[in-house]
């Protein structure tokens, strides 16, 4: 009897995982593809409304994954209001609510950076499709890994999962850096919008990584602020040097983010060595050479 119950429980868990992955795949792919289609119809109002609608679906699904593992079974013998209060009691806890909000960071950056990138590249279907497909895959991987993290009740993220999330965050950083610079140029916003976006993106990604490795403290948060300010300062020079290719500008900043992240992580883990530093510096230098070799800094377009 006990073995049958265990087999049934394992089957239920497996089915839940399949349903979770299938649902987030459908929402991510169809949602982003719908945005590509609407954008190329030149329907900006519908595009904005649809982007909000799709994001709400993604947020609700993460809420469902979180809720599935932290809810308490309500006692329906009591009044309806008391039962509902117990049902959502975990969201009344500041710790649980902070955890939930923390895990919304990466999907939010991925999604809204994609919305901006697709929106400002009207008619560039191959680029839009690349952003939509890669972002959808990243969202699926993120939500799948978050489900496992929720199941483990916020234990430090396993190394394999953490490394996958690191690569997804590098892509998210590139996407948001490039999108924020592009939208500033496209709509003639103040450059401070770009600097602020770089700072907030960097800090939030650092903060989430610290949370996932159970290294969140005031000193670590302060270090993340310093690193984020440094990257925002670097964005100031990027804004002055680049005036055409915001994609390569995003790659440059993402490479800087990756280098600073590894330095930050090594310092927190007390594993920063000369060889480690030289290895990361060499990777950064190679990317910089590649970026500078394909970027025409003499090209200029009409400014705002």
Q: Care to describe what's here?
A:
The protein is 82% helix and 0% strand. It has twelve helices and no strands. The longest helix has 39 residues, at 2-40.
Q: Level of helix content?
A: over 70%
Number of helices: 12
- How would you classify the quaternary structure? single chain
Order of helices and strands: HHHHHHHHHHHH
Rough shape?
A: globular
What about the largest sheet? none
Mean pLDDT over all positions: 80
The total strand number stands at 0
Euclidean distance between termini CA atoms: 74 Å
Radius of gyration: 21 Å
Structural class, by secondary structure, is mainly alpha
Summarize the topology:
Elements: H1 2-40, H2 44-70, H3 80-87, H4 89-92, H5 94-103, H6 105-120, H7 125-151, H8 159-187, H9 191-212, H10 218-241, H11 246-269, H12 274-293
Short description:
With 304 residues, the chain is an all-alpha fold.
Can you tag this structure with a few keywords?
82% helix, 304 residues, mainly alpha
